[in-house]
Design brief:
alpha/beta; Four Helix Bundle (Hemerythrin (Met), subunit A); single chain; globular; Rossmann fold; 2 domains; binds 5-S-methyl-1-O-phosphono-5-thio-D-ribulose
Length: about 350
């Protein structure tokens, strides 16, 4: 079950759950203009690769809606500008670019008046959103066959938030966890806190509490200890962009987790829709890595926690090499990273 929808189309505007306010406040932000959607993506009011894609698709419609022309060519030219602003928001999650390309392709291929094209764009954004929920549910179902075979219930560790909040609903890594919970296979989730923005502690833990899934939050540097103590049966994480060879960009800290999982023989799975695979990139070192403001590191609330005079480096993502990944769980099936290429045919929007 899942009743958390981070992006909702209602009364001609988009409502976003403000993920920067959770878990202390549950508030909705209304978005009626594409510029505000771009800002919401950049400031992480909405975040998580598939959710960013859905938000950008609605952003494209909002931008299209405000274009004041009946001339198709002028309309398409202005829509390209909307696309460019939305593309500038976050560089790593490929779902953003995938959704924008799909919306643009739809506009170019639609016949009819500008007003009719606008309506088709709204329908396409809604379709992207509906497809994503189904995709996540399929990922959850496909994961049931790869869950470690044990008579006892499983403890699964996850990093960051790849849940309903990070998708259109249900989640990818948390979709796997939801499916295992529903099947009675799950004992408990271990959620990495996920410095510096704490998506694990704030968002994954919040989602688990909503669904009454037992959750233990640990700081990131406790994961190795937990694996050494054999507290963890499996690791499952989401992805922001997967290269053709299976190298996977995900929230900073994922790579370290994969290294220690390998060291302790704990299976390490990536759960992601095919819209997160970028077959244009041969290997993970070509994936652009977002660097965010250093205040995310040195400031907790309004308190500065580092001394003056230090330098900062704040990459938001890292790349886990394919050889550390046990399998990639997609909506079609679970594959070894080197088999990912066999699923290529479905990807017409990159
Ligand atoms: C299903 S979401 C997968 C990833 O997007 C998620 O693991 C992640 O890294 C999110 O990063 P964020 O910076 O919070 O957008």
């Amino acid at each position: 079950m899942n009743t958390i929808y981070p992006v909702v189309w209602s009364n001609n505007k988009v409502l976003l759950i403000d993920q920067t306010a959770l878990p202390s406040r549950y508030t909705l932000v209304e978005i009626s203009r594409y510029e505000d959607m771009a800002k919401a993506i950049k400031t992480m009011i909405v975040r998580g690769a598939p959710a960013i894609g859905v938000a950008a698709a609605y952003g494209m419609y909002l931008g299209a809606r405000d274009i004041q022309t009946k001339e198709r060519e002028i309309f398409l030219k202005q829509l390209e500008k909307v696309a460019e602003i939305l593309r500038q928001t976050r560089p790593t999650a490929v779902n953003l670019f995938w959704a924008i390309s799909r919306m643009l392709k739809t506009a170019y291929e639609s016949i009819g008046t500008v007003e009719e094209i606008k309506q088709i764009l709204l329908q396409t954004a809604q379709q992207i959103q509906e497809e994503d929920v189904k995709t996540c549910q399929a990922i959850g179902q496909n994961s049931l066959s790869i869950l470690p075979k044990k008579t006892e219930k499983l403890t699964i560790l996850t990093h960051c938030n790849a849940g309903a909040l990070a998708t259109a609903g249900y989640g990818t890594a948390l979709g796997v966890i939801r499916a295992a919970w529903t099947e009675g296979r799950l004992k408990r989730v271990f959620a990495d806190e996920t410095r510096p923005r704490l998506q694990g502690a704030k968002l994954t833990a919040w989602e688990c509490v909503q669904e009454k899934i037992p959750v233990t939050v640990i700081s990131d540097n406790m994961a190795a200890h937990c694996m050494q103590k054999r507290l963890i049966d499996m690791v499952v994480v989401g992805a922001d962009r997967i290269a053709a060879n299976g190298d996977t960009a995900n929230k900073i800290g994922t790579y370290g987790l994969a290294v220690i999982a390998k060291m302790h023989n704990v299976p390490f799975y990536v759960a992601a829709p095919l819209s997160t695979v970028d077959f244009n990139l041969e290997t993970g070192d070509l994936i652009p890595i977002e660097e965010r403001d250093p205040s995310e590191l040195y400031q907790i609330g309004t308190t500065i926690i580092y001394p003056d005079g230090v330098d900062y480096y704040n990459p938001a993502f890292d790349v886990t090499p394919a050889h550390l990944i046990t399998g990639i769980i997609t909506e079609q099936k679970t594959v070894k990273p080197e088999e990912l290429i066999t699923l290529k045919s479905d990807l017409s929007y990159h």
